[in-house]
TrEMBL record:
GO CC terms, sorted: Dsl1/NZR complex
One Pfam family from the record: RINT1_TIP1
Coiled-coil stretches: none
Superkingdom of origin organism: Eukaryota
Family: Belongs to the RINT1 family.
Gene3D superfamilies in alphabetical order: Dsl1p vesicle tethering complex, Tip20p subunit, domain D (1.20.58.670)
GO biological process: endoplasmic reticulum to Golgi vesicle-mediated transport; regulation of ER to Golgi vesicle-mediated transport; retrograde vesicle-mediated transport, Golgi to endoplasmic reticulum
Annotated PANTHER family: RAD50-INTERACTING PROTEIN 1, RAD50-INTERACTING PROTEIN 1 RINT-1
Protein name in UniProt: Uncharacterized protein
Amino acid sequence: MDAMLSDSLQTEIVMEPSEIEEFKIMPFAEIFITLLQTITERYEGLPQPGHRLQFLELQLELLDDFRVRLLQLGNAENGEGIDSKIAIIANTTHYIENVLVDWGQMLHFLNLYYYKNQSEITKTRNLLSSELDNSLTDVDTDTVFVEILSLYRHMKKDLLYALVDSTVLKARYCSKNYRRESWSRMTIMKDMRSYSLTPSACPMFELLGTKLHQFKKYLTVKLFIVVWRLVAQQIDVFLYEKLVLANTFNEGGAKQFKFDTMRNLLPLFAQYTDKPDSYYTHLNEACILLNITQGSALLLKDMLTALEGATGVEDKRG
């Protein structure tokens, strides 16, 4: 088993997942699950619950060993293609998690859960009743896989955040020149058709487009949705704090930034959702305020001043 894990994990990770494969996992994961199923078939007929519990412990140890190997493999990856490899590892982790959730509802494992609990209750009768009540409210406590499931889910979360953080970090770097544009000295175009994407924004937008395409290819649908939403939300906050709040805009700069955001940034995500603006709330509202008419701006200022006087709280929104 140990040799199979070592050799297969190192070789299979370089294989691209098939487009028709729902889970897009490492091929060896299927072999590993088959091995666990074979073990279950061999011991589920044993008459003594204690003996079956011993084999269950073996399966849990194998699951944890497999998780550790996946984690080691993910940490060892570097260089070109690392995101695609981490994505496949995340898919594999998610696949194992789904299998364990399904197994936890099977009669065989429900019986083992009952026997295991009976044994543990005998040893812990001095626990406070409130603590027992709290333990029963967790949706996953009715399965023998609760602890290993928690570990797999934590690992999956870390892998997905690694993909998001790496993408956002690269986007921040690519946006340096864009954030330093002279937003307060830009020319106003009379015709909106005359506007084009700010050249300094191209590296960041190109990076985002490439990463989203890559993640869609390698991640399962469910995990891809999680990743692109997190990327969108973090880019939204980043550009709002480091670009909008850090600069002064004239009318030309406000219109240009709105064009960049509405006609170029949001469309990158529009192919994955009908409402990309719902994930860019900060930038969406900033574009509205930056492009508000002078009369509306004065009216808004008067309303804020009146609100400040009525509440006695100083308005610091500028």
